[in-house]
Amino acid sequence: METRSSRDGSEAQGNGHNIYLVVRDNGYGIPENLIEKIFQPFFTTKSEGDGTGLGLCICKQIVEDHNGTIGVSSHENVGTEFCVQLPGIHRDPDVGEMTN
Known about the structure:
Elements: E1 2-5, E2 10-14, E3 18-24, H1 55-65, E4 69-75, E5 79-87, E6 90-91, E7 98-99
Antiparallel strand pairs: 1-2, 2-3, 3-5, 4-5, 6-7
């Protein structure tokens, strides 16, 4: 499996069939009682006017529209990790067409 990392805390891996993108931070983390809500439309922990609560909802919809999944793992005062899995696209060498 090939792995690529960047300075911003993201990491991408591919195994020939799927692509995995992992983004992690070492921030405050997400409280356990909020994890189930973070992908809901208009959910935000920010003050009124500071956020729409659509970012993660839109991300999840884009990933799912591409037959992928997104998951989250978080520990308070440790950080949060998001993992996106997307199906790889394979080029048929005989035909030159891309397939899932």
